[in-house]
Amino acid sequence: MKLIYVMDPLCGWCYGNSKHTLALFEAYNDRLDFVIIPGGMWAGPNVRMQSPQMAGYFLKHDERIAQLTGTEFGEAYFQFIHQHEVKLDSETPSRAIVTVQKFWNDRNIPFMVAVQQARYRDGKDLNMENTYLEICAELGIDSAEFIIHFNSEEMKASTQATFATAIQYASSYPTLLFEEQGQLTLLEQGYSSLTEITKHIDRLIDETQTNLI
Question: Which residues contact 107 (CB under 8 A, 6 or more apart)?
Fold first, then answer.
């Protein structure tokens, strides 16, 4: 049994869901496998630069996200989005997440959440390697080994393959799915309460275990 989370590190709604995602990991990681599939929302031809127009777009949506989810956006982030020389490229943070999932899979969800917090809470630039090295230090991931893998052609190719895979699972972010023996059940698309998601997961686990008896 596994939970599949289709997301993008530059998706504000995914950040809004981050506390729920971490809570689910802490509650179920001993019973379920957690798989992150970054979608590459802003990658390749969709890469953008931060601008006054983009800042206005972010602020409009971030206010709604904060109201609905209760997740706070940091003051450092609100200052950061007005730095117009910053590139909005999903590939770099997605590759960091893919790398950790490959080599330090037991910390994939905490790392993903920390990446989102780095931008949306702390105003860090996700284009900078040092942003990820700080997270590695916090989570006990060997920084030198991480950098080697992160910059490898293998991880670059794996990230592109992950973007292609995401299309097969979801058309919007975030999307949370339960998978058992190839059968998928949609748990969340957008935002749902943690209580609602947990009840749904518990029911699916019970049904799966009953079918095995």
Answer: 100, 139, 140, 141
* pLDDT > 70? residue 115: yes
C-alpha dist (Å) from residue 48 to 43, 167, 196, 197: 9, 21, 35, 33
State the DSSP string of 17-78.
THHHHHHHHHHHTTTSEEEEEE--TT-GGG-EE--HHHHHHHHHHHHHHHHHH-PPPPHHHH
Q: Which amino acid is at 132?
A: Y
pTM above 0.90, yes or no: yes
Q: Residue 186 is inside which H or E element, if any?
A: strand 183-189
What is the chain's length?
213
Burial of 122 (0-12, 13-18, 19+ CB in 10 A): middle
Sort 111 into a burial class: Cβ within 10 Å, 0-12 / 13-18 / 19+: buried
Cα–Cα distance measured from residue 118 to residue 105, given in angstroms and rounded to the nearest whole number: 20
